[in-house]
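Hi P.,

Sorry for the delay on this. The queue was packed all week, but I finally got your sequence through. Input first:
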Amino acid sequence: MASSGEEYLVNRNNKIERRKKILTWVSIVSFVGSGVFAIVPTLQEVLKNPSTQPLSAKSSLQQQEQGYKLVLQREPENRTALEGIVKIRLQSQDLKGAVEPLEKLVKLNPERQDYKTVLADLKKRVGK
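Then the structure:
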């Protein structure tokens, strides 16, 4: 009688293990499937409208610049905001617009040689 009790426990453990494996695979398939269903429409949208990305990057730069301008209205000598405006204007190829905040940075930090170097280079490029 003890052997039938052991067989029962072994069979029960085997069933539990099989159920665990099945549940694991169902979970994996569900997770991957939900990821695919989320990614596919996004990829289709990008493939249909590839020109929307540069516009959003440009508007993002404009939003960042507006934020820095607001900071400068409150704190006209904020070095971080001035550096941010210079970087954004250089990224958007607005060389003339980058000269003024860079000159202000040079006045505020005369010991910073890198500001002076970039300003001199920028003035050469704008003058051409």
